[in-house]
Structure formats: C-alpha cells, structure tokens
Amino acid sequence: MPRPPLHTLLLFLALCSCKDEEIRTYKVAVEPEAEAQSSQDAGARDHAEHSDSVTWRALPGWKAEEAGKFLSAAYTVPELGRLTVSKLGGDGGGLAANVNRWRGQVGMQPLPEDEVRGQPMPVIESNREMLLFNLNPDEAPADAEGVFVAVLPLGSETWYFKLTGSSAKLRENGGTVFMDFLSDVRIAGEQQAAPPSKGASMINVIAPAGWEKSQGSSMRVASFEIKGEDGTTADVSVIPLPGDSGSVLDNVNRWRGQVQLPPLAGANDPAIGVEMDGEAGKLFVTHMVSAEAVLDGKKAAISTAILKADDITWFFKITGEAALVEANREKFENFARTASFP
User: Fold this and answer.
1) Band of the pLDDT at 20, cuts 50, 70, 90?
2) Is 88 a member of any domain?
3) Domain C-terminal end among 192, 226, 256
C-alpha cells in the first residue's frame, strides 16, 4: 500500500525523530474534548505518545498542553491553532452526529446522514484508513474558526484528530501541517488488522514506462524516480492536502520561488499555466524553468498539476534537471490525466 504525504504532506516538512526517546502512556477517558490548562514545550518531552492502541508524534515546535480529563493529548501549534487527540468507545455516537456537531461549531449547516462522507486516507503500516473532513469553507471570513478532522474507527473505539484555527491560517498551511502529523499516526498490533478497504489506495495513477517507484516522503501516495542517461534524476510525487490548499497563483508562486524565479503579479499572467481534462476532472498544469544554474551547476525545472476533488487538493509534481524534466513533460501531463478514484 502506498504511503500517504500526508505529506508532503515533501511538501515539504520533515518529521521529527524519536529513536532515543521514552514512550509516554496516557489514560484516556471516554469524552472527546475538554478545555486544556497549562502548556509546555513538546520538544522538551516525549514526541512519541500512545495509548494501548494508537501512537502519534507531535511535530517539532509544538507545545504540549495539559490534556485534562477528556483528551488523550492537546497541542498548541505555533502560528496556526490547536490540535487535539481524543477517543470514544465504539462508534463514538455515530459519524454523522459528530461531523454535524463540528459543522455547527464553524457555522455550517448539518448534512443528512447519507451525505456525510470523508476522504479516505490509509494509515501507514496498516490495512485500515482514516476519514478526513475539511470543515473550513472557502467563503468563510479570514478570522472565522475552521476545523480539519480525521476520524479513525477501530471497532471497539474511535479516535479523533482535530486541528482548529482561523480560517485564513488553515487555508494557508493548515493542510500541510495536519497531513504531516497524520502521516505518523500508527495502530498497534496491526498484524490482526481487518482486510484492506476498497478505498485504501486513495487514488489510482498509471506511470509511464521507465519511471521507477521510489519511497519518497511519508506524505506521498505515489512516488517515482526518473533517471537520465547522463546520470541526472528527476523526482515525481503525488500528494493530497485537505481543503482548497491555496489559490493556483499562490501555489505557482511558491514553486517559482523554489527555482529562484520572481513571483507572477496576477492569475491572468500566461506563465501561470493551463487547464486540462483528466479522468478525475479538471487539472491545472504549469511548467517552469530556472533562469540560472541552481541544481548542481545546471538549470532546474518543475512541472505540476493540481486536481481538486471532494474537499481534497491533489498535487502532482516533477522536479529535477531542466532537460530531463522537459523530456518527460508530456509523459508527466499524461500521467496526471490518468489519475482516477477507486
């Protein structure tokens, strides 16, 4: 099963290591949330935290709060908001009831039970999956509260991972941070896990001949390496992030910065890219080449495709030496077009 990016998640954040750190055990009550009390620096305590069934890691710089009676863990996420981890017995009162409660907290209307669906995300080293919910409407005011939630059902209990912050901050980089955190959630004793669900692959892609599968980062659902005849290489990734995950212009300018190109002034600039049809819907495709030699004495290039579907933004990206990326540009576009959902 492909590892999620969650992250890019790439996209570009490194997870902290805890090889020499002691595991801390928490006693968990059966209520999902409560107000936290004091806080301390998570970097000065254990990063690998767990119950008997689930483990996770706080990202570097997070401040661990006193979780209180009803939470397994709570963290202050600098410049973003607050992340909580909680658990309920059984189905936690039902998926629809919980999702509609969260929707109400951010001013969204409730949904009929048969319309409450999350985006499946495989849990690494497991046959199970979480369900992701983006409760941060694109039209919400910048200072309104938004929420990202992941629900992990385990039969006898259900786990909830919830990131809360201002709508504007969540749109800017909340998806990246949340997926980076979720990419390190693990389930204990998964050798007895249930059979894989049909949605566990998240997305299907068909790689062209000559592309070799690679491990990539933990946030990727697909990763490939392209080798040139002169020894150069290019990296291909597919990464999902919850929500809108920024405008096309914002993302294009971020990638332009990675190859030392100046930002575009507006979305009407022809250099921003073009729209194409794919199996799963409309793709926005862009291509850029550095003006200077920025990669081992050679020019670098990036080609990307953006696909938005079901409150998830999918990023397809190829990065490497300019000539090799250009030689694979058509293959990359066709690769992104093959993307389809199980």
Assistant:
1) very low
2) yes
3) 192
Is the domain of 163 the same as that of 296?
no
CB 19 within 8 A of CB 48: no
Residues 288, 172 within the same domain: no
192: which residues sit within 8 A by CB, 6+ positions away? none
Q: Give the range of the structural domain holding residue 233, as residue numbers without chain letter.
A: 212-337
121 and 227 in a single domain? The answer is no
Does the pLDDT value for residue 109 go beyond 50?
A: yes
- Number of domains present in the structure of the chain: 2
Based on the fold, state whether residues 158 and 252 are members of the same structural domain.
no
In the predicted model, is pLDDT for residue 219 greater than 50?
A: yes
Q: Which two tokens stand for residue 249?
A: 């212009």
- Does the pLDDT of residue 88 top 50, yes or no? yes
pTM, full prediction:
0.54
Backbone angles phi, psi at 213, to 5 degrees: -60, 140
Count the helix, strand and coil residues of the chain and give each as a percent rounded to the nearest 5. Answer: 20, 35, 45
In a domain, 5, yes or no: no
* Residue 109 token pair: 């209307």
318 three-class SS: strand
pLDDT, residue 197, reads 38
- Which pLDDT does position 317 carry in this prediction? 94
Cα angle vertex 341, ends 57, 110, to 5°?
70
Chain mean pLDDT for the chain: 78
Contact 317, 328 (CB under 8 A): no
Same domain, yes or no: 29 and 89? yes
- Write out the two tokens for 283: 């793709």
Query: Is position 13 within any domain?
Result: no
Residue 257: CB atoms within 10 Å: 11
- Clarify whether residues 167 and 279 are in a common domain: no
Strand partners, 83: 75, 163
Which residue type sits at 277?
A: D
Cβ-based neighbour number of residue 19 at 10 Å: 5
Dihedral angle sign, alpha carbons of residues 341, 280, 4, 60: negative
- Give yes or no: residues 38 and 185 share one domain: yes
CATH of the domain at 142: 3.40.1000.10
How do residues 132-184 score in pLDDT, each as one tens digit? 888 887 777 888 899 999 999 998 899 999 999 998 888 877 887 888 888 88
